[in-house]
Structures are given as C-alpha cells and as structure tokens.
Predict the 3D structure of the following.
Amino acid sequence: MKTPPGVSATDFAAALGQFEAAVGKEWVFTSDEDVALYRDAYSPFWGEPEERVAAAAVAPGSVEQVQAVVRAANRYKIPLYPISTGRNLGYGGSAPNYSGSVVLDLKRMNRVLEVNERSAYALVEPGVSYFDLYRYIQEQGLRLMVDVPDPGWGGVMGNALDRGGGYTTHQFRNHFDAHCGMEIVLADGEILRTGMGAMPGSKTWQQYKSGFGPWVDGIFSQSNFGVVTKMGFWLMPEPDAYLTGVVLVPRHDDLIPLIDILNYLESSRVCQGISELSSPVMGLPAADDAPPVSPELAALIVKAVERDTRGLDEFAARKGRAAWSCTLKFYGPAKALQAQWEFAKDKFAQIRGSTFVDGALIKLPLSAEQKEKAHKVEFGIPNLSIFSLGARNANNPTPTNGHQWFSPIIPRSGEDVFEANRVFAQAGREYGLPVPPFSLPFCFWERSFLFLFGFPVTHDVEKNKKTRAAFTQLVRIAADHGWGEYRTAPAYQDLIMSTYSFNNHALLRFLERLKDAVDPHGILSAGRYGIWPKHLREGRQ
Amino acid sequence: MKIVTTTMSTAIAAGVVLTVGALAADQTRIQQGHEVFNKWCAPCHSAGPGNPGTTALETLYQGGKPGALEQRNDLTPETVEYFVRNGVSIMPFFRKTEISDVELEALAEYLARPLPK
C-alpha cells in the first residue's frame, strides 16, 4: 500500500481507520488491485513514474460521511481528491493531480434529490450521471430536457464543475452557467450553501442564482476550495418543436460575413441551438468512411490556409461545391421557428451566391423511432456513440488507448478562424502533431469559438513523451496569440495556468491566498487547475 | 421398508425444492446481470449500428464472432470480469463504486449464460 507523501504510516493507518468508521470498511479501498481502478485510463503519463496515482480511495454515501472523512483527513493532513463519477476522460478521469492523494469517490451519492417540472429545475448529488437524470425524468414522465455532453456517461455535477458543455440552447449548453445553488463541505468539515441556499428555509434555492452578497459559486469550479455535495440545475422545458436550416456560401472568404451574421442571429436568440460549421469543398468534417483527400485538393487547402484562396475557390466552383455551410438549430414554438429561419435566410442572403436548404420541422416529444435516428444530444438524450471516433472500426483498425484534448478558445470571427488554422497547421508540421490541414471551430459557447484537437494517448512511453512535448508547444504558441485553453487534464494544468499570467500571475496568486485561507492544511485536491497549497508550492515556481 | 421409502420420497422432494430454489436464484442473478448490462454496457455494446463497442468487435472478428456481447456464446465469466476491471483500447476499466464485485459476478454470469437455441 502506498502512503501519501509527507504522511507517516501511523497517521495514515489512523486516518484510514477513521475513514472506515465513517463509511464502512467495504468502502475504503487500499489494495493495489482496487486502487489501480482509480488510474486515469487516458493518462498522458501512463506507466511512467510521473503518472499521477492515488494511495487509496474512500467512498462516502452521504454528506455526513463526507464531513467525517474530511475532518479525519484534516486532522491527519491527508491529501484528498474528490471525484463525482470519475468519467472525465480526456480531462483527467478519476486520478488525482497530486500522487499519493486519497480519492474521495462520491459515486455512491447518486440520488436525484428533486426534479421540479413546474419550475424546471433539478437538485442532484455528485454521483448522478446524465444517464441517471435522463432515466429519472423519463420514468416520471416529466416534460423536461437535460442538456447533455457527448459522451453522456459523466456526472451532471462533475461536468458542470469542470465547466463542460452540451448541445441544446444557449441558456443550458454551458453547464456551469446553468447551475443554480450549491452545497459544499469545506476543508474543516463545515457545510456551506450558496445563493439562496444560505437562507435557512429558503424557498428559492434553485430559482434565483446569486443570493445576497458576493456570488462565490464560481470559485468552486475548476478548483479545490471545497467538496460540492449538492448542486441545482435549471432544465429546459421540452420545446414544442425543433428545426434546422442550412446556409451555403460559395467562396472561402465568405466565412467572414457568414460568422458575423451567425453571431448576430445567435446573440439575438433568433437561433438558439448549437450551430455547426462545415466545408463541403474541403470535405469537413470528414465522415469516418470518407475517401482520402486528393493531392490536388490537399495542395489547394494548404495554400488557402496561407491565405491564397483563389485556387480553392476555382476548384469549388468547378466541382459545384460550396466553400462553407452552416447548420442553424432552432428550438421553440413551431410557428415561431419557421419565422426565425426565414429571418435568418434574409440576413444570409446578403452574401452573394448564398443558397439554403430547409430542414424538416420536428414536433416534440420524439417517438421511439425518432429517438433512435436523432442526433441524440440535440434532444438531451445521453449516449456513448461518440466513442465511435476513437474505437476500432474499418478506418481505424488499430485504435489507441485514449485521447487528450487541446482546446483553445478563440474569437468568433472568420479572420480568427483563418489565423488560428494558419498558426496551428504550421505548429503541427513543425512538431509532428496530427493537426488536420484545416480545422473547424465549434459553437458550444455563446460569444467565442472552441477549437478541439484530440491527440492520442498510447501505452508507448516514447510516443506519449513526444505528444506531451508537442502539446506543450501548442499551449505556448496559442498563448502567444492570445488564445487560452478552457479546460485540460491534470498533466497540463500547471502549464496552462501559467499562461494566465497577467500582472505577474495575479490571478494565481489570489487563488493561492484563497487556498491558504480556506484550506490551511492543503488537503483538498492539491494542484487542481494549478492551485497548490502553501506547503507544496515552495520549490515549484 | 415403508419408512425407507418415505425417507427417500422426502429426500427427493427436498432435492426438487432445492433445485427449483437454485434455479430461481440463478434466474434472479441473471436478471440482475441483465440490469447491470443495460445500465453500464448497453450504450456501447448493444446490437446494431451506432454502438462503438459492437462496431469495434465486429471489426476485430471480421464475422468470426458476433460483435454484440449478448449474442456471444463463447464468453466466460473470467473474460467478462477481466475486461470490466482492466479495460481494453479506449474502453476504460470500471471502479467498484460503479460496478461492485457482486454486480460484476451477476453481469459475468449473464453474459456467459448459454444462449437459447
């Protein structure tokens, strides 16, 4: 059995004894075999000495048990690492930032505490997965939609706290923004409730977000200031209908007005769903079974990325393919959606040569057959089909062991999409990374684009080392251009936090002061998102 | 003789009761295993398109075996338990707070049961 660094065997044994007294012996895991199940299956350090691994795990079943475990850990200065469902693969999974931590596994706390249909909210415990909440709502026959990430096996609370996103409307896609009220166990075992939950007997904990005074909820996301044990979420009342519409534009540089108009439509809530950009001429996004790009087209794409677009435009005209298309998604009353789409078409018609494809109007609720055929996440149906991208298939006969995401945020403009592609394609060539010749941005967030580059994780140490070195270069190159990542795996959290360095790292220094104040022994999630407690900071900078 | 016969009859009856009881217990465990499968495995390993685990196994076996786990007749409990606790390729392993040892035994029994002919 491993012992947490800096903790004596006697103290660790005493702490484990108190953990067992709190949660029951069967829910304290210390054998190598059991603790190995807490490894990050997609760790970029898999099998290397630097891989972050746990010393043990403890799985409370109630808030009171969480308090007892935290108090014991605080007494013996045992590093704890809370996880909700531990399925944050690609961004860290269930393994701690600080090797030798005891994972505080909250999966057993899996109760949907309340779903209120009239006021459209849910209150859940940490172990509730999107599948669990979806099933609950379906079984109860409630006309509510959950905004789910892809894949949907993670925790509702954990995904929000790591600031994940989904696929329905603006108000719900940003999962942290969609939360309303938290309950938190602090490092000394005290319970805190935020927002209206701070008032005993409050009637509106899940109905008014900010309560009174400073709104502290944000500091409990991507951080280590407390153990969140309850969290409320606003849910979308099931809309009357769903509609898609596609706009196509002929020239490469038409992306600039296309995005400007899209931004207007989204920011005005004319279209509410997650818009999707694609490029018919470049064949993007490429289907699994797409034939390889011809050498002629590949050369034209390289030129276009370097801002010589004439050849690609001529090729597009010759082949009769649009340079870009954008699919708009609408949720709401059927009559309103048709009018909104017509309005959107009028706006896009300003782009010379634009054409349109009307999608079918779908009335909700979906039938069982429609659910099977639908792009499920757009209807709040959790599923795992996205793993098809990495799993073995005819075009991917030798799959890797996982992936890691490089995910910078860039401005929502055509010019920035072109510039980011030029920069990342060049970096990919320079550092031997599988950066595609042209990458499309995603529209998860309201006012910015998200680029997502998935890099393989293997069980080959040398390959992983190369990928990490290249990933590090990409982070630095992005930061040099003013593009920061929104989320990352523990392996890169220090690196990425170091790029948020305005005024000599004023943000991190402030967070460290908070950390020292609310968790003086530094027992909670040491190092998460680059925030280290005082006793582990020395010698790090 | 009568006493012996009575004793034997009682023993046979008890045996029948025990056998029926054991069968019922097996059925309950297999049902539990089915539920574990539906909750944890089905989103990737159900039959049909769009299930990444099924597609992966179809690609691997090239028609030699079914891709859908519930259609396999060669799975042993040990094989099922190994992959749940060790993962393979991009499939991660599962912790005991997700699938307990008891649930895993039931799942293994369900997937290793003889298929109806």
